[in-house]
Structures are given as C-alpha cells and as structure tokens.
Design goal:
homodimer, 612 residues, mainly alpha, five-stranded parallel sheet
Chain lengths: 612, 612
C-alpha cells in the first residue's frame, strides 16, 4: 500500500535504457543553469541593506559602492570559469578539478564545501522566496517555516519524478523573472531621470552603530553571496549542444552580464530613490513598491521573485545528488547515494538533501538572514580550490599561452581566497564558524567511510583462498518449541528435511509445564530429543541462548548449531500485537549479538501462516 | 546497553518463587487501599465549587446540601461493598462479580469501565495533586503538564521495581494527610464556633448564570467523583490478615467514616467561612489559607494533598495491570499483559497505563477540571454492574436472609444506576460522551481479540491430524549472490551442508556484469548452477521474487524453495548505513508478503561477520 502511494506520487519505475540525456539549446540552458546565480540578487540586496542600515543613512550610502565591488568580483569569477569550461568540456565541478589537479584532500574539501553550499542554496533560496511573497501578503510572515517546507516538499516530489518533468517546469519562471525585473528596472531608470533622487537622511532610521570599516566589510561579505551559483554552467557543459564549450562559454557571459545589470540596477535605484524597508518586508519588495506602486504589477514582481528562488532551490536537487553520487562512487559517501532509483534519478541523494534542508529551515526559523552567514564560506572555498586546480591544470598541460591562462585563474584564486578570509573574519560570530566546523567534519567522515569500504573489501576478498574448499559438516539444528501444534510440526518437518541432528528445546516459564509437554512430545515426535530448560526469571531469550552456547561447547566441532525458528505469522498486521513476538525477539537479540560479538549463528525461519 | 540502563532503573530480575504476598494488618491495609477514595475529596470539592460559583453566592450556598447528598450516596455504596467483601473473600472486583453473575457482556462492560476508570484516576489524581502544590507555588501553574508527567514517571518506575518497595513508600503520605486534614478541620471547627460565619454575598463573584436545577444537578454529578475508589478494598480482600472478610469489612467502615468526615467537614467550613478561590488556586487551598494562614502549616497541608493524590494515582498502578492481566488471561486483551515481568509485576500493563495517562494529561493540558467529566461515568457503571451482580449472587446462593442482602445490593444498584444517568445527562457535552464512546469500543475490541485467539487455537490445533506424518521432500535452496566473495562462500557451504539441490541467482542491475560474474563463478563453484536475472528497473527484490515464484512453478512439487541469504554483518551499527541492506530489504518484503499473501517461504539467514 505504501509502495502504491509512492508510485502514485513519483510515477512508475523507468527502465535503465531510457537514461539518455536531451541536449539543451542556449535559451533552455540559460534557464537550467542560471536561476541560482540570478536569484541570489534577492538575498544579496537584502543582506547589504540589513548590514548597512544599522549605520543609518551614512551607512546606506555605501550600497552602490559595495555593489560595484561585488560586480568586479563577479567579472573575475566569470572569466575564471569561462576558462574552466573550455578546459573541462566533460564537466568540471570543483570536486573534480581540485581532486585531479591538487590531490585527494583538497578535492574532498571542495566536495564537502560544495555539498554544504548546495544545502544552503536550497534553504536560503526557499526562505528568501517565502520572505518575498510574505512581503506582499504579510499574514504569511508568521508561517515562514511552514511555507518554506511546503515549497520544499513540492520540488522534492517534482525532482523524484525525474529530470524530464523538472526541466519543462523550470524555464518559465526564469524568463518571467528576467522580463519583470529588467522591465521594472528600465522603468525605474526612466523615472529616476524624470524625478530626481530621494533623500536618505530623511527616511533612514537613526544609526545605532557608528560607521566603521569593519561593518562595511561585513556588508560587502554578506552581499558577496550574490556570486553563489556562477559555477553552475561549468558543471553542466556536456548538457549543451555542440560545440559544447563554445555554447556554454557564451551562455556564461550572457548570464554574468544579466546578473551584473540586475544587481547594479536594483542597488543603484534603491540608493537613488532612498528606499528603506521595514522589519517585515524585503528591500527588493520596498523598491518594487516605490517603482510600480502596490498594484498588480507589484504582485507580479514578488511572485516572480518567489518563483525564481524556488527554481534556484531546485538546482540544488540536480547538483547535490550528482556530487554526492560522484563522492559515493569514489567510496567517500554511503554507496546508496550512487544508486539510480526507480525514476532514473539519485533519489537517495534528493531525500538526504530534502532532510538536511528541512533541518536548516526549522533550526533557523525560516529566516534567510540567519542562514546567509553560513553560506558564502563554502562557495568561495570551492571557488578558490577550483581556480587553484586550474592553475596546476594549465601548467601541466603546457599548451599555447598557458602562462596567461594560469595567471587569469591564479588571479581568480587569489581574489576568491581573499574573499574566504573576509567572510570568515567578518561573519565568524554570525554563523560562519558553523560552516568552518562542518567542512572538516565532513572531510573526516569521507575518510572514515572510505576506510570502512576498503576494510570490507579486504575482509571479503578471496585473495589467497584456494578454490577447493571443504564443505561444513552436516548441520546440528536446534528447534525452540512452545508446545505441540501445527507450527511446531511444520518446523520439525523442515528440520528433518535438512538434517538428522535435531534437538528441540522448551523454555519452561511455568514450573511443571515441561513435564506435561514431554508426554505429548513422545507421542508425536518419538525420535527427536526434547530438552526442557527451566527459566526462573521468566525470560525466553537468555535460557535459549545459554542452551545454544552450551550445546556448541559440548559438541566442540568448531560449528554453531543453526536455529530453526517456528514463526506464527498472523493474517493481519494488528494481530501481531496480540502475540508475544518471541520469534521476532530472538531474531533481534541475535542480530544485536551478531553486531557486538561476531556471533555467526544461522537462523532458519520457518513461517506458519494463519489464514484468519 | 539499553538493557543495562533498564536494569539500573528497575532493579535486577527476580526469580519466580519469590512471588509470595505479605499479608497486611488493618493499619497498613487502610493505607494501601484508601488513598484513591480519601484523596478524591480534593477534586470533588473543587468540582462542586467550580460548578456552583457560576451561579454566584446563591449557587455556592448549595455546597453543603450537595455534600450531604453525596455522603448519603457514599453510605449506600459502602454498605453494598461491605456485602460484596463477605460474599467474595477471594476478591470481588466488578469484572469478576459481573461476569460470574450476569454473564460475559456485562462483565466486559464492567471490565472496560474499570480500565478507563483506573487511567482516569491516575490522570485526575496527578493533575489535581499538581494543582494543589501549584496553588502554593504559583510559578508551577504554567508547568502543570510537565510536573504531572514527572510525577507519573516517578511512580511508574517505583511500580516497575515491584510491590515491596511500593508498599513501604505509600503508608506515610496517607497518615500524614489524615493527620494534617483532620487536625486542620478540627481547628477550623473551633474557630467557627468562636468567630461566627462569613458572608458569601460579599465575597462571591457575581452570578454569570441564573440558579437552575440542572446546574445544581451537574455540580452534584461532578462532586460524586468523591466516591471513586470506594470499591478498592473489595478487590483486595485476600491481602488482609485472617479473618480476611471481617478485617476488610471493618477497614471499609473506617474508611467510609473518615471520607464522610473529611468531605462534610471541608465543604461545611468552606461554606461557613464563605471561602472563595481565584482562578489559579484550588478551593481546598483557599480554605487552608483561611484556616491556618499562609505559613508553614499551609505548605504542609498542600504538600500532604499532593502526596496523597500521588499515592492515589499509584493505586491505579496496582489495579489497572491486575484487571488487565485477568482480562488478558481470559483472552480479551493481548496476552503480553498477563506476563509477569522481570520484577514479578505486570510490567506491560504498567507501561500501558503510563502511556494512556500521559496521553490524557497532555491532551487535556494537565487540567483536572477538564478530565473529571470523563471520570464518574465509568466508576458508577462498574458500581451498578457489580451491585446488580450481587443481587443475582444472593438469589442463586439462596442462603439465610438472602432477601435482605439482595434488597440492600439492589438498592445500591438502583442508586448508582441513577447516578450513571445523572452524570451522563448533566455532563454529556462536557466530556462524558468520550467515555460513553470508549466503553463500547473497548468491549468491541475485547470480542475481536477473543475471536482472534480462538481462531489461532483452531488453526494450530492438531485435532484430526494423524501422529504419523510424511516428512517434506529434500529441500530446494536458492542463494541470491552479489558476487564471489567470502560471504558467498559461507552461504554456499551452508547450503551444501543442508541439501544438494542448490541454485544461485544473480540480479543483474548493470548490464553485462552477469557475464563477468559467470566466468569467476565457474572457477569457484563449478557444480552449482548460476542463474543471471536481468533487472531493467534496477530493483533487486522484484526480479528475485519473480525468479523464486517461477522456479516453484517449474518444479511444481507442492513445495517452495527456501531462500539462503548471505548477510554481511558490519562490526558496528553505524556502518550499516554504508551498505545497501539488501538482505534486510528481502526479509522485510517477504515478511510483508507473508502477512498479506500467506507466503510461507523459509528463509535461511547465513551471517558473515566483519571484524572491523
């Protein structure tokens, strides 16, 4: 029944041969890879505003300069990745580039940073999206956690259904967002030329902290989350039509230009018109209200913001499971993460991502502002490692003009590396410490897991084992019985078909019951020994285990007796509550002993099915 | 480890022969059986006050008359049970008396009513106790649920440790309560004679409802919860010293007199001094403050109230598991409830009671006033059935003076039966409907469970089966393998020791992997057939089950092939997360199929233990 519900939700299983990938033209590719990058202006703007507003109107006058700084960063990062795209036409994720060029540890650090980054992308995008729509509908403000989790559930399901459905749904919101935002900003520019600037000193709340370089740097660090997602295209080069690298490179340039325009445009207009937001509104929402009023166009803008942020969260559902599956295939993560599910997607990875995101959204109360400080560290760390890897790559390849290419990527690495420092120092107490703790612990786990798989392989290996093996001697079987009834007969008959060394054992809880049973036993099974074990403490398990251990010691032939368990299976689940579940208890206890004591006793489970 | 924690909490197991019962003298017996009855004045007073205060001072002037009515009821019920004690010296609980004299259905109704009653005794006593102490320490008022659950946890643990410890702890609070309350009331009586009455019309809040017979009747019905617990002694006659019935009867009379004195004394003084309580105080607390001031004596009174109410909740831990175990032994409840646990107590019944009580306390927000309406219905229903049963008992026995005895119990049945009506009608919308729904559903479950056990016995019975049985033919074994490694060798060796009809099956998820395996297989197991089954949907389970069903059909010898499962057992629990758990998945799926389709396939589980 559960299975049927699941199939209804995610669709019927797909056969393996359907796993062919459709190539994307540039229009669809832009929609597929850009949402994360484009949508990050939503929270980046918000972070810059929140970072500066504490310093009053004087602080807010630094918005546009900070925006210019971040846009320059964007240019550096985009150029660096443009080179990566051409160097790795088969897809150059940070993990692959770092691992291939810098070695295992840097690769794993990049991998861990990426995984954290993807979870945060999902969490921040969803909460920021909910904040955008809650700015329009204030009653939603107190249901931010629920709303974010609802959206998460929807995109999880869409993604579990598989890539094809996911692809078609996603194009629309991206172009809707570009259309409404570029339109709004152009309209705003016209109004700006006609109306003249607003006065920040009139509308900004009073400064509660003095202007300081540290606080401006912190606002800059927070705003730099705008850059997350720029690397997406370099991961997905093989999805482009031929010539892949050429098309991907062009798309990256278009995306970077669009991002720059949106980011500078919105920041510039906000400062020009002296727009300020209250506590239950985002700064972009306040800007939209100022530019287009509170009518239907405003609601369209907020809805398109919510939609693109949701689509951005969705990109994590492509990226996280893919990177996790690569790490799992290399043995650094549980191998279930590399299983292609019923619907040809990495379903386990998606569920893991959904679980982690839920945890973050709930722990941080659905507040994107609390989540952002965790965010930039991982992204810039992955950038830095990837760019450093590229430097090594060019030098090794030693192709024409490798020095220039190396220099460009080296500059990228330097800039993003500096950004790691800036973010860590300025946001450390705000939450960056969490990411700084998480990355090493993830890397440590990667090593532990890899070690475990290596040890398992060693222990299972047949290396040095001769192909001719002595079979184990005829097995001794022990059948615990609760009386003489049909389930007992079934179990004894099976035991007879398997071996002729059979002992039945009865655990006597009520004194005297053993003697009664012995009389009946003689009548039905005269040839099988029945041992009656007293149980002064009324437990079935301990006397049974002691009996098994004792007989093994007595026989002392190096083998353990196998346990033949007569198991009465009720016709319906609820009826299980009416039985003592002794068979289940025995199996569970043995499982535990197996784990803790290496107890390799074979269990032969003989079910007897009740029909009503 | 869990087991060790458990042993530390409840003590080491006790052997069966220690299950002898110490007989109680009258002093200890009173302490053992009266707390429920005596303590009920705490919530009965409160209910009468809350029921009347809505009608203002005029309403409150009915407190003492209502008290007189309830005390007369008490006399009737006590006389009825005095007779039961002499008729059933081996213990005459309502279930036994009703079942023996009136038949199965009335017995089960009484049993169901009693079980509900015991859960409510625990829930109401604990919440009322917390309210008593929160009246003294108001900050506790907002932690009522947590405090009640804490007390519940403590008495659950004490009871799980076993009867002896429970007995000694309980005497003290009862006599402390009697001492402080009788002293306080006597002191109050003296002050009443010296000081003269208070004026209700001055202190009572304004009436928010007009005086009405219905509301007075409702207050009377609520107050009648004072009677719950009177039947306790009649259940426990065998625990008294010889002559049991004589001693038990005397104790009952003493208890009834004490109850009457406490109840009438407290109600009378409350009305005489015109005591009124605020929203975060109980009326008994207000009375105590009026009589002895807010000094240490007041705190002693409130503490002793909390203690006796806790001890009253504790009596449920003796009664509920006992009645449940009798019902379980008769086949009306899961038989686990009749298992004597490690500590010679009905531990499962105690845990069930603790669980149900937790549920009630949480659902009703720890408010005794919301719980009380559910309460009296069950108690009076059990009273009525028990008294009616006694009428039949006397007539059947036909001893000297049976008509008088019959008449007395008949009058008791009539009075308590009327009370059922009164309570149901006046408290229906306040929560009595819940109990009215619960009792029939419990009775329905009793019948379902009984039916199930009867059908199981029929299906397991050997009736008509000849003692000479044909053994099943030599078994066919199927070994699913994931490759050639040590766990495979272990499983194949076991299979070889059990049978010579062995087939290995490999589920091929990655196309082509089957051919590679076949080559290695030939080298290691040349004599065993390997079947490669393709799995286009990448599932292990379905192709395996289809293969098993197909081979069974092909052989068509009336038997199912047994499944030999090579199971790799990791050295530590967390490592399980790193494996696909295919063996576990196969077992779970088969378990489910067993339930739903009567699938009696034998599973032979061959563990291979990893050492690191």
């Amino acid at each position: 029944m559960l299975y049927r519900l699941w199939t209804w939700l995610v669709g019927p299983p797909l056969p393996t041969q359907e796993a062919a990938h459709a190539r994307l033209n540039k229009i669809r590719a832009l929609a597929a890879f850009s949402p994360d990058a484009l949508s990050s202006i939503a929270y980046a703007n918000q972070e810059i505003f929140l970072g500066l507003v504490a310093m009053g109107s004087l602080g807010l006058s630094y918005s546009f300069p900070i925006g210019l700084g971040i846009t320059s960063l964007l240019a550096v990062v985009a150029i660096s990745y443009y080179q990566t795209i051409h160097a790795y036409p088969s897809g150059g994720g940070s993990y692959i580039v770092a691992r291939e060029n810098l070695g295992e540890l840097p690769g794993l650090v990049a991998g861990g940073a990426l995984l954290i980054d993807y979870v945060l992308t999902a969490a921040v995008s969803l909460t920021a999206g909910v904040e955008a729509i809650a700015s329009a509908f204030p009653f939603l403000w107190s249901y931010r956690v629920e709303a974010a989790l609802f959206l998460l559930a929807v995109i999880t399901l869409i993604n579990l259904r598989g890539v094809k459905e996911a692809g078609t749904v996603m194009s629309l919101p991206v172009y809707l967002f570009l259309f409404t935002y570029l339109g709004m900003l152009a309209f705003g520019l016209i109004r700006a030329l006609l109306e003249g600037p607003g006065d920040l000193s009139v509308v900004a709340p009073a400064a509660i902290e003095p202007l300081s370089l540290f606080l401006i740097l912190r606002a800059f660090a927070s705003g730099s989350t705008a850059l997350t997602g720029v690397e997406a295209i370099s991961n997905g080069v093989p999805a482009f039509r031929k010539p892949e690298s050429h098309n991907a490179g062009r798309t990256l340039i278009v995306m970077a230009l669009l991002m720059g325009a949106l980011f500078l445009g919105s920041l510039g207009l906000t400062q020009y018109f002296a727009v300020v937001a209250g506590p239950q509104e985002t700064i972009l929402s306040a800007l939209a209200r100022r530019l287009v009023g509170s009518g239907p166009v405003y609601y369209l803008v907020q809805t398109s913001t919510l939609l693109i942020l949701t689509v951005a969260a969705n990109t994590s559902f492509a990226d996280f499971p893919r990177v996790a599956s690569i790490l799992a295939r290399d043995g650094y993560l549980p191998r279930q993460l590399s299983n292609l599910g019923d619907r040809l997607v990495f379903g386990n990875g998606m569920l893991l991502l959904a679980g982690d995101t839920t945890l973050l959204v709930v722990l941080f109360g659905g507040d994107s502002h609390l989540l952002v400080p965790l965010f930039a560290v991982g992204a810039f760390m992955a950038f830095t490692l990837s760019q450093s890897g590229m430097v090594v790559h060019w030098r090794r390849k030693n192709g024409p003009g490798w020095q220039v290419k190396s220099l460009l990527n080296g500059f990228g690495a330097l800039v993003t590396g500096t950004m790691v420092m800036v973010v860590v120092v300025s946001k450390f107490t705000h939450g960056a410490w969490i990411t700084l703790l998480l990355i090493p612990s993830l890397v440590w786990s990667f090593y532990q897991i890899k070690n475990h798989y290596r040890r398992v392989a060693e222990q299972l290996s047949l290396h040095g084992l001769p192909p001719s093996l002595q079979p184990v001697p005829r097995l001794r079987l022990v059948v615990p019985v609760s009386g003489v009834h049909r389930a007992t007969i079934e179990a004894i008959n099976y035991a007879r078909a398997l071996s002729d060394k059979i002992t039945a054992v009865y655990i006597e809880i009520e004194p005297g019951s053993g003697e009664k049973l012995r009389a009946r036993w003689k009548q039905w099974f005269p040839d099988i020994t029945l041992v009656v074990e007293p149980s002064p403490y009324r437990s079935v398990i301990s006397p049974l285990l002691e009996f098994l251990d004792r007989t093994d010691r007595e026989h002392n032939d190096g083998t353990l007796a196998a346990l033949v368990l007569p198991e009465i299976v009720p016709a319906r689940g609820w009826q299980g509550l009416l039985h003592n579940q002794t068979a289940w208890l025995i199996k569970t206890t043995l499982l535990y002993r197996r784990r803790s004591q290496g107890y390799q006793r074979v269990i032969i489970d003989v079910p007897y099915h009740l029909k009503k």
